[in-house]
Amino acid sequence: MKRRSLLLAATALTALPALGQAEVTFAPIAVATTDAAKREIIVSPTATVNGNQSAIAYNTLARSGDMIGGVKFSQLTDQNGNPIEGESEYGSVDADFTSLLPRGDRLFAVTHFESRPAAMYLSEVKQDADGKLSFLSTKPVDFSGVGGLWVPCAGSVTPWGSHLGSEEYPADARAHFEAASLEDVDSYNFGMVAYFGVNPQTMTLDDYRAAYNPYRYGFPVEVDVDGEGNATPAKHFAMGRVAVELALVMPDQKTAYISDDGTNVGLFRFVADTAGDLSSGQLYAAKWVQTSDQGAGSADIEWIDLGHSDDATIHAAIESGVSFADIFETADMAEDGSCPEGFMSSNAEGRAECLAVKPGMEAIASRLETRRYASMMGATTEFRKMEGLVHNTDHNSLYLAMSEVSKAMTDGDDLDKGGRNDIRVYKNSCGAVYELQMDDAYVAQTFAPVVEGRKADYAEGTEYAGNSCDVDGIANPDNISYIPGHNVLLIGEDTGSGHQNDVAWAFDTQTGDMTRIMSNPYGSEITSLDWYENINGHAYLMAVVQHPYGESDEDKAASPDDTRAYVGYIGPFPATN
Questions:
Q1: Residue 277 burial (10 A CB sphere; 0-12, 13-18, 19+)
Q2: What b/e sequence results for 327-356 when a residue is b if at least 16 CB atoms lie within 10 Å of its CB, and e otherwise?
Q3: How many CB atoms sit inside 10 A of residue 130's CB?
Q4: What does residue 350 show for φ and ψ, rounded to 5 degrees?
Q5: If residue 35 lies in a helix (H) or strand (E), which one and from where to where?
Q6: Which of 8, 359, 424, 428 has the most beta carbons within 10 angstroms of its beta carbon?
Q7: CA 161 to centroid of chain Cα atoms
Q8: Can you name the residues that pair with 446 across neighbouring β-strands?
Q9: 8 Å CB contact between 107 and 136
Q10: Can you give the pLDDT at residue 6?
Q11: What average pLDDT does the structure give for the chain?
């Protein structure tokens, strides 16, 4: 594309790995400082794998609005498959996680779009002998059987090879139930009614409520693709309803971690009854037991049992029309944060509440009001901007990105009311990545930061003006990945003022050295950062450029065409396993 280029920077590589460790390193790129560079997708020009240097590049598979085999990639559709108005003339510009799914001698990709209503597209992929990929065809995945798809954000590939997506920022069902007019409802929800043929510009409150059930959204979403290119979607209601950033299944094929994005959120662990089947199991929520307030803070983890359930039971409750008032009794909270006898406190959902679960509704509460129920049971719902997860297969730990360390994570914030003020650390608006050590059963035991952003003050008119976080460190980490066997953590940013242009880093987990490997155009987020170590002898780093000129610097777009998302990858690399 005309705006894609490589920036040939210094040729120094990341520090050599530890003795006996295979080598994967990237040529670093410089900070984008000119207007021209800030409009480009810039990636490392070379990578070295086991001593052999390869030329690499950013390769675009598709952009929002592209016609592929007669189908408009990213077009949003209603429950009957009819096109509906998207976020732009190109459909959705909010492409996010894109999986690569080998099926015999065929290769498929599933791309989801972070919209309301949302979409997933299944594309067949051609792989050339030299590893170059291209889309042959594409088609939307039908979600009408589960009420449509809502704001899918990050994702992962399960150990059995399915696409595991997400639904972020579900509506507050209490506000939905108590609303006396549309003015009492968060307008963020309104776009979803178009999926059901309702015009959000002319609807009444009754129209809105008839079309939109908040309990249908906020779950991990699995899409299985067979060898013939047929996609079967499922929402895993048994895994709980939160602002799912990412669901990640461990190698035992039973344990899954679920990160929860937003303010006053939690960390969850699901253990399936049967390996390879996420439709029923036990759900747990983390309690932070602080051991240090240094930096982003350290803690031991206790796990609060939220009980057992299954998809079918929870789906039936949703479709029966169960409401917030069917699940909870409510009472007023005292100024000191205490509740009347028989009620328990919660500081989830950004409000302090006194709640009591109605008799027999415990399982429903645990899965439809997961955050509230977890807080009531004593779990920690104080995290701020929890993002991506990835498994360090070499040391059996998890990395967890926290885009900001702020609000209820600090001591004495108003958002602690109704909770227990478990997290008492210092604010870091540039964010941090934590490592969670696990035992042999994949149960996380501890939290500790491994890399933290640093504030900076660059004077107006200087080279790095417009960046409030140190340009040589992370700013608001989001999507992360890991190169197994090589001690390399890949960190993608979703930042506004932290860095004017979002970048991706290769972080050496042994030495702490960081190499800048990708820089995005103005106003775009790096999403779908995901490493594939061997697909027919080639490795790939998926990387999607979401909403260019959409989150900042909107006025700098030369034409609407500039705002189209890029779905693509860095590489190809030689296989790394």
A1: middle
A2: bbeeeebeeebebeeebbbbbbbebbbbbb
A3: 7
A4: 70, 20
A5: helix 35-38
A6: 428
A7: 19
A8: 300, 437
A9: no
A10: 27
A11: 94
**Burial group, residue 359, by CB count within 10 angstroms (0-12, 13-18, 19+):** exposed
DSSP string of 234-260? EE-GGG--S-EEEEEE-TTSSEEEEEE
How confident is the model at residue 13, as a pLDDT?
33
3-state SS assignment for residue 178: helix
Nearest one of 95, 189, 100 to 150, comparing CA atoms: 189
Ranges of the chain whose pLDDT falls below 50: 1-22
Count CB-CB contacts under 10 A for residue 217: 29
Distance CA 138, CA 126 (A): 12
Q: What is the pTM of this model?
A: 0.95
Residue 132, beta-bridge partner list:
none
Residues 6+ apart with CB under 8 A from 573: 24, 47, 49, 54, 56, 538, 539, 540, 541
Q: Quick check: 149 and 219 in contact, CB under 8 A?
A: no
Which amino acid, residue 425? V
Token pair 């747990």 is at which residue?
A: 284
Our measurement of the distance from residue 386's CA atom to the centroid of its chain's CA atoms, rounded to an integer in Å, reads 9
**In angstroms, how far is CA 64 from the centroid of its own chain?**
20
Give pLDDT, residue 496: 84
Q: How far apart are CA 56 and CA 568, in angstroms?
A: 13
Q: CA 292, 269, 445, 528 torsion: positive or negative?
A: negative
Cα–Cα dist 232/500, whole Å: 39
Q: What is the pLDDT of residues 225-257, one digit of tens each?
A: 999 999 999 999 999 999 999 999 999 999 999
Q: Mention every residue, 6+ apart, whose C-beta is less than 8 A from residue 129.
A: none
Rounded Cα–Cα distance for residues 535 and 401 (Å): 27
pLDDT at 112: 97
Give me the count of residues in the chain: 577
Specify the DSSP class assigned to residue 459: P
Q: Under 8 Å CB-to-CB from 68, ≥6 apart: which residues?
A: 62, 123, 135, 136, 137, 138
Cβ count within 10 A of residue 262 = 19
Q: What is the pLDDT of residue 89?
A: 77
How far is it, in rounded angstroms, from Cα 379 to Cα 366? 12
What is the rounded CA–CA span in Å between residue 265 and residue 517? 31
